[in-house]
Write a structure and sequence with these properties.
With about 375 residues, the protein is an alpha/beta fold. It has three domains: about 100 residues, no CATH class; about 160 residues, P-loop containing nucleotide triphosphate hydrolases (Rossmann fold, 3-Layer(aba) Sandwich); about 80 residues, Beta-grasp domain (Ubiquitin-like (UB roll)), CATH 3.10.20. The protein contains ten helices and 16 strands. Strands 2-3-1-4-10-11 form a six-stranded mixed sheet, sandwiched between helices. A five-stranded mixed sheet has the order 13-12-16-14-15. It has a three-stranded mixed sheet with strand order 6-8-7, with helices on one face. Helix 1 packs antiparallel against helix 2, helix 2 runs parallel beside helix 7 and helix 6 runs parallel beside helix 7. Interacts with RWDD1; this interaction confers protection to polyubiquitination and proteolytic degradation. Interacts with JMJD7; this interaction is direct. InterPro entries: Beta-grasp_dom_sf, DRG, G_OBG, GTP-bd, GTP-binding_2, GTP1-OBG_CS, P-loop_NTPase, Small_GTP-bd. Catalyzes the conversion of GTP to GDP through hydrolysis of the gamma-phosphate bond in GTP. Keywords: GTP-binding, Nucleotide-binding.
């Protein structure tokens, strides 16, 4: 019996099991088995066949965005509109067969946009080069999920399911669970909040499924068994996702209004070039990038060449991005902008910068 059949059997078992207090241990065990088999499915086979052409593209720019969606939803058209790269677009499915990179220049940042081939149902099992597509998506900072507005929410649910089964968690935080396997001493289980979905017995059963008998587990929030399994497996990617509904010029205004009000969603039309500027603004927000300008002593700030950092970056990060030896010679910095109480303010290495701050670094 192959792994795919085992997965199908477990999924069938889960779907026909009623959810109640008596079956929660059984369901927890099944979910743990399912996660284990899916992890085996993603591992490359030992008997490697002929090495195919590489799929991934070298990371460049300040951030990386992957375009994921079913065939013929307008990914290539979107790439051609947003960047100077021309990706072939035609009215038949699977026009794009490999990964095509482009660069969006926005607010002084270079954002790498990857046009990936269309995903079909069953991609997580490797159908239609699905595994390679999803592997590239795992390396991105943000996923843009292109959806056809005329098809309703069907595509969104299918794609979410495919990405969920390969360990990509969209618009979710990492569960706040401390987990550490030990050499001996059994299981020490604790929680700082009342748990409604997990119990010590269930945690023990799940750990036994992974052949872990000695571990330290501390729940800092009320998590589900699925979240706990994610923590044990440890190779899950938590990333922000923007749901972009294309072809809104073909549906009614009420439907456009409904789609636009959904969380993390943007409606656009590549054919009529509608709402693309708002999509860029949202993308900037999701990437959590900030621009920092530098200033030499006695001169005006250089507003043409910004340093692009992540939100939450400190003065030390800025020093490293300018030159790796700068932090060791650092004396103090003067900062103008919204992160300070008064301008300029003398700050140390731990000061957190904000968008469009100006910094002058003084060396020893």
């Amino acid at each position: 019996m192959g792994i795919l059949e085992k997965i199908a059997e477990i999924e069938k078992e889960i779907s026909r099991t009623q959810k109640n207090k008596a079956t929660e241990y059984h369901l927890g065990l099944l979910k743990a088995k399912l996660a284990k088999y899916r992890a085996q499915l993603l591992e490359p086979s030992k008997s490697a066949g002929v090495k195919g052409e590489g799929f991934d593209v070298m990371k460049s720019g300040d951030a990386r965005v992957a375009l994921i969606g079913f065939p013929s939803v307008g990914k290539s058209t979107f790439l051609s509109l947003m960047t100077s790269t021309a990706s072939e677009a035609a009215s038949y499915e699977f026009t794009t067969l490999t990964c095509i990179p482009g660069v969006i220049e926005y607010k002084g940042a270079n954002i790498q946009l990857l046009d990936l081939p269309g995903i079909i149902e069953g991609a997580a099992q490797g159908k239609g080069r699905g595994r390679q597509v999803i592997a590239v998506a795992r390396t991105a900072d943000v996923v843009i999920m292109m959806l056809d507005a005329t098809k309703g929410d069907v595509q969104r649910e299918l794609l979410e399911k495919e990405l969920e089964s390969v360990g990509i968690r969209l618009n979710r935080r990492k569960p706040n669970i401390y987990f550490k396997p030990k050499k001996g001493g059994g299981l020490s289980y604790n929680s700082t909040v009342p748990l409604t979905q997990c119990s010590e017995k269930l945690v023990q059963l799940i750990l036994h499924e992974y052949k872990i008998f000695n571990a330290e587990v501390l729940f800092r929030e009320d998590c589900s068994p699925d979240d706990f399994i994610d923590v044990i497996v440890g190779n899950r990617v938590y990333m922000p996702c923007l749901y972009v509904y294309n072809k809104v010029d073909q549906i009614s205004i009420e439907e456009v209004d409904r789609l636009a009000r959904q969380p993390n969603s943007v409606v656009i039309s590549c054919g009529m070039k509608l709402n693309l500027d708002y999509l860029l603004e949202m993308l900037w927000e999701y990437l959590a990038l900030i621009c920092i300008y530098t200033k030499k002593r006695g001169e005006r700030p250089d507003f043409n060449d910004a340093i692009i950092m992540r939100r939450g970056a400190t003065v030390e990060h800025v020093c490293h991005s300018i030159h790796r030896t700068l932090a060791s010679q650092f004396k103090y910095a003067l900062v103008w902008g919204t992160s300070t109480k008064y301008s300029p303010q003398r700050v140390g290495l731990t000061h957190i910068m904000e968008h469009e701050d100006v910094i002058q670094i003084v060396k020893k």
